[in-house]
């Protein structure tokens, strides 16, 4: 049987309408890069899967600080930019 939480999440099961690859680095691309490294599309999917309301971010930069992968290991990220220019084109940007 489903718990109440998954029932709430089911109706919030938002799927992206389209997808494109990032052309240049931005704060948003940086955070998408971090979610995708941890095995998620983006913040929307992370919150659905992990059933959390908040993602831990660095107050100075607003970048994602810590993410829990699906196998429950944690990824920790630096305050500074981690997505190098040569990685930017690999980042998928989902449109809802």
From TrEMBL:
Similarity field: Belongs to the MEIG1 family.
Role, per record: Essential for spermiogenesis.
Xref: InterPro entries: Meiosis-expressed_gene_1
Gene Ontology annotations for the cellular component aspect, listed alphabetically: nucleus
Pfam families reported in the protein's UniProt record: Meiosis_expr
Name the record gives this protein: Meiosis expressed 1
């Amino acid at each position: 049987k489903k718990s109440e939480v998954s029932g709430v999440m089911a109706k919030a099961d938002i799927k992206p309408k389209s997808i494109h690859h990032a052309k240049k680095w931005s704060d948003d691309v940086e955070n998408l890069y971090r979610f995708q490294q941890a095995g998620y599309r983006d913040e929307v999917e992370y919150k659905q899967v992990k059933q959390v309301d908040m993602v831990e971010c660095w107050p100075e930069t607003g970048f994602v600080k810590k993410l829990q992968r699906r196998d429950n290991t944690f990824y920790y990220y630096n305050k500074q930019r981690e997505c190098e220019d040569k990685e930017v084109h690999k980042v998928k940007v989902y449109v809802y």
